[in-house]
Design brief:
This protein is α/β, with parallel strands linked by helices. Helix content is 32%, strand content 24%. The chain contains 19 helices and 29 strands. A hairpin with a 7-residue loop joins strand 6 and strand 7. The chain binds NADP nicotinamide-adenine-dinucleotide phosphate.
């Protein structure tokens, strides 16, 4: 790279440079300039107004399926142009594999969350939580928890180590929730983040104002935020503490999600001796975690806990593996680990190692300058892996608190499983802990002991290791975050992540009002009989509340006996009068629940080929009262909700109620069908 790229901010639909020259960033590998970035003079207040006034309304006008389609499009576009990002990512000292986690991991997170949103969120702009709460005797007064998009802007502040993934994992959930975003990458790798952001803008998939970018700090970002805004921060505990205690954030109770540093541990179970497969799995995982991204991962293993008797053995196994790691220019042949992001980061890591030295000694490696592999590589930002050893971790403090954000971890012994739990929990809240064991009793004791102090627990053994995503990988469908020191935040976790950007409100009123407000038919609301059987109506013609009421059908003893013989279900309650009568639930022999369901289908199904393409399943099924021989049943079928799937069909949820001749409800359930559009 000859000329440094002048990074630009994306402000109210326009690319603009900062007024000053901006901060320079140099290649961590060669030391040559890569970019300059600044946001001095950027009109931050105008960005906030643009997001709130233009981006927010435009996003909120889109339904969840429409938002999901766009988020998926963004993921595909990033993948299509990924090589542009790999080229830049190499300057951060990242190997191709490190880049893959960041770049394809970022695109994959967009795709995964878009697909989950498409399958799990309704066709609308609100999300209902839980079921209707009956608040009065007759059911005329009910309550429902409803999520709506917040009306502010999501301010995303990111750490340097995952410029693409860090930006995308936050963007995906915010955009799906209908909230516009201002994103601020960290300066060390802002050139990768800006390129990724540019790809999103150039895709033209998002409405105006949905996303804006700051490549520097134009001033105090917290001062003008309102209670409808939200901050999602990733970085060090110190920066998080300063930002979340900002007087404006405190005064307005601004939602603040923090993902901070974390002193994660990995534990070798006492059963995982060197002759067991779990031993090798553990050694490989520790080395992978120490060297991936040169240890610059919030989830990396910082503490390695092993049974006292295995301390020396593990030390030699790890040292042998670490000795085989070639450090150098990621582009050079055979290089397994690249550099830290900058010379300054190397200095910071060394300072942390020096702090740790008060309680540890070098077991492998040291602080000497590395001669990196690769012709053009300069040593400034390189650090070889360092394994420290602490023989008395119970009396130590710094090893449980100091994060050396580089290829550094401390090996330590534990005396018993309970001791291992205590030591893990000394980090006072961490993102992840892993245990390598094939002993289920130990796995249970350990997991339940550490779970309250951790966001994620990985139990690895011979059965899952091959397919395991490993200790260090946050996944789009599982919550990422940890209590206490780790920030107390939660990101990702499928739809949970989307809900962080929405407000939950308890709405009270009549079932009819709640049906109108939520767009989902609620039991007790008007159920209007439609002149045409709803199975004859196409997806687009069906309306919430459309109802079909069947004729009655009397169930005879012969029906029950026939069903028992035909299906083989001869449970005594259907076949033995005396035994059935002795059962506290039944007056005597009764119809099978499945018979009631089958007869109900026979009563409501319209048989000719038509818009209903398939029965997709049942939900919430409950059998509430027995049906005796001679009883007559009747079915009410009401359109409860609709969700588009593909252009040719959509999913319809039907509220089904089966009643007896005396009016008692016999069964209730939700029936799902796929209906042609
Ligand atoms: P950092 O120094 O705390 O910076 C994080 C971000 O905060 C940067 O974008 C930084 O930008 C910004 N920032 C700092 N002061 C600010 C202010 N007054 N107003 C607005 N923004 C401000 O952290 P880092 O060195 O980039 O990242 C490394 C740390 O992040 C490690 O400790 C690691 O464990 C942690 N991390 C945690 C997670 C997680 O998910 N838990 C993930 C990745 C990294 P400027 O430098 O421009 O101010």
């Amino acid at each position: 790279m000859t000329n440094a790229i002048e990074l630009q901010n994306y402000v109210a639909g326009r690319w603009t440079r900062g007024d000053d020259g901006g901060q320079p960033a140099v290649s961590a590998v060669t030391g040559r300039p890569v970019s300059t970035a600044g946001a001095a003079g950027v009109d931050y207040a105008a960005m906030l107004m643009h997001a709130r006034g233009v981006g927010g309304p435009a996003l909120r006008a889109l339904s969840f399926p429409e938002r999901a389609k766009r988020v998926k499009g963004l993921g595909l576009e990033l993948l299509r142009r990924k090589e542009e990002l790999y080229a830049l990512s190499a300057h951060t000292g990242a190997t191709r594999r490190d880049g893959w986690i960041d770049i394809e991991g970022g695109a994959g997170t967009l795709l995964s969350l878009a697909s989950k949103a498409k399958r799990e969120l309704p066709d609308g702009t609100t999300i209902l939580e839980g079921s209707l709460e009956r608040l009065s005797k007759s059911g005329a007064f009910v309550g429902q928890h409803v999520y709506t998009s917040k009306h502010g802007v999501a301010l995303h502040i990111n750490a340097f180590n995952f410029p693409v993934w860090g930006m995308m994992e936050k963007l995906a959930t915010a955009l799906l929730a209908g909230m516009p975003v201002i994103t601020k990458p960290a300066p060390q790798s802002a050139y990768v983040a800006e390129a990724a952001f540019r790809i999103l803008v150039e895709s033209e998939l998002l409405p105006e104002g949905a996303i804006q970018l700051l490549v520097g700090l134009p001033g105090d970002l917290m001062a003008d935020l309102t209670s409808q805004d939200l901050v999602s921060f990733t970085g060090s505990a110190a920066t998080a503490a300063a930002l979340k205690s900002h007087p404006n954030v405190v005064a307005k109770s601004i939602r603040f999600v923090a993902e901070q540093d974390s002193i994660n541990a990995s534990v070798l179970g006492p059963d995982a001796t060197p002759d067991q497969p779990e031993y090798e799995l553990f050694i490989d995982e520790v080395v992978r975690e120490m060297t991936t991204k040169a240890g610059q991962k919030c989830t990396a293993i910082r503490r390695i806990l092993v049974p006292e008797a295995l301390l020396d053995t593990v030390e030699s196994s790890l040292s042998a593996k670490l000795a085989a790691v070639t450090v150098g220019d990621p582009a050079a042949e055979g290089v397994r680990m690249g550099s830290l992001v900058s010379a300054a980061q190397r200095e910071r890591t060394i300072a942390s190692v020096q702090e740790l030295m008060a309680e540890t000694r070098f077991a492998y490696g040291d602080l000497a300058l590395v001669d990196p592999a690769g012709a053009g590589a300069r040593p400034d930002a390189f650090l070889a892996p360092i394994l420290l050893r602490c023989d008395a971790p119970g009396e130590a403090d710094g090893v449980h608190r100091t994060e050396a954000f580089g290829p550094v971890a401390t090996l330590m012994p534990y005396a018993s499983p309970a001791d291992a739990v205590t030591l893990c929990n000394r980090a006072d809240g961490a993102l992840v802990v892993s245990l390598f064991t094939h002993d289920p009793a130990l796995a249970r004791e350990f997991t339940l002991g550490v779970a309250p102090f951790h966001g994620r627990v990985l139990v690895s053994d011979r059965h899952c290791a091959r397919e395991s995503t490993g200790h260090g990988s946050p996944l789009p469908v599982l919550t990422h975050g940890g209590p206490g020191r780790a920030g107390g935040g939660e990101e990702l976790g499928g739809i949970r992540g989307v809900l962080h950007y929405m407000q939950r409100t308890a709405i009270q009123g009549s079932p009819q009002m709640l049906t109108q407000i939520t767009g989902r038919w609620q039991a007790g609301a008007v159920a209007e009989d439609h002149p045409v059987h709803p199975f004859r109506l196409r997806y687009d013609e069906l309306e919430i509340g459309h109802t079909f009421r069947s004729k009655e059908r009397t169930i005879s003893l012969e029906d029950i006996e026939h069903f028992a013989a035909f299906t083989g279900d001869k449970f005594y309650a259907h076949t033995d009068e005396e035994a059935a009568a002795a059962n506290p639930f039944f007056p005597g022999r009764v119809a099978h629940g499945y018979l009631i369901l089958s007869f109900a289908a026979g009563l409501f199904v319209d048989p000719e080929p038509g818009p209903v393409l398939a029965n997709y399943g049942l939900e919430r099924l409950r059998f509430l009262a027995p049906v005796s021989p001679g009883d007559a049943i009747q079915v009410r079928l009401t359109v409860e909700g609709k969700k588009p799937r593909k252009s040719e069909y959509g999913e319809v949820t039907w509220d089904v109620e089966v009643t007896r001749q005396d009016g008692d409800v016999v069964a209730t359930y939700a029936l799902l069908t796929m209906n042609a559009t």
